[in-house]
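Researcher: Next sequence.
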Amino acid sequence: MLSSPDKDIAEFTANRFRLRYVIALALIATLTLISQWVIQLSMADEEHDSRVVNIAGRQRMLSQKITKTCYYLLGAGTTEARRAAREQLQEALALWRRSHSGLQHGDQELGLPGTNSPQVTELFRAIEPDYQAMVMAASSVLAAPDGTDEIQQAVRRLGEHEGAFLRGMDAIVFRYDSEAKEKVDFARHLELGLGALTLLVLILEARLIFAPAVRRLRHDMHRHEHHKEDLERLFAASPTAMFLMDETSLVIIRGNSKAEALMGCSADGFLGRPISDFLDTKHEANRTFLEKVHAGDILN
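Model: Next structure:
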């Protein structure tokens, strides 16, 4: 049985290992949660970014479609063809205007968050005059009667501003794509950093917790083996009967050959049984003997 100082040292060592282990597990759990949060956030950003880039690219095609439809409307020979062209122009213009607003201010149905960098905001501000001029020209085409000079003037204004708008949208799409790649690279580097930090925590845990614990366990096992060998030598060299008992239950754990001779049976006959089974407690001496053994007193 350990003495009081040994117990205190063992308890202190166990508490220190336990604290280190809990801290290491908490760090690993925290890093894992942060890593998952980064991955989920990165996936959400990639989904929004791809949607934004696609719609921004579609804006260029819609502007070209609006201009081509207006030119087609000038040369349409039948009323049915002109009506179909006007319907296409109206649909394209409505989607074009909605997407233009959604890219800047957000549109939940289109999947546009509306969160732009200062650079993208400045690019939108630069093309706004051309955009407004094209919207007014396309609206004039829709409002003007067929075959009037107003349609020709509106189509001419569309052509004048289309080139500047397309160049501006090209710059916006390129900027959107560049920012999306920067986000992906940042998320990748952050995930690598978190993975490396988690691996470092595992290495430190193995070095500062598991390795000392293994050394301590090996030391305790060697000490236990030495104690066992000392006990074997003590039992073998003892000229009198010796019993090793559990201090709480007084169950006999071990006995030497002199103990077997004293009990008149082999060790199998008394091992695992309390010593009180072999003492008649009706006698005062036996009761006193058991009380002293329980109390740990010295016996004569």
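Model: The first strand starts at residue 243 and ends at 245. The two ends are 22 Å apart (CA to CA).
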